[in-house]
Amino acid sequence: MVASDMRLAVVLANEVEAVDLTRASRPEWTHLSSRGPQLVGLKPGAQRTDHTSVLAAFLDTGMDREQKPVWYVPYAKIAPRLSITATPSTTNGQPADSSTSPRFVSLPIVARHGTGRMVLNAATHLPQKVVTY
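RESULT FIELD:
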């Protein structure tokens, strides 16, 4: 799962090209994990302000940055920024009363075969639960 400032994306192993693994930003990301899913962050890219440049970048590569290990950074590096867009939630990903300090926050998950939310501990930003719809 790849975390950016605004959302979480599920990237399946068959969506990452072998050549892109050789360009990974850290040695541990130069191969697919045999221990199961990995949680990583996504370093910010250049801000694109017009639709044409975003489309051109996607068409050039055929992939989003989430599928390119060269863009990965340790999750801990981006975790504090998640609170900017995360919403207070219950442990089941439902909206929580924001008048009190929430124990949990959540972010949307983007995946090809469904949608959901990742529930995070509000203090540590570590994942607690995935809720799918």
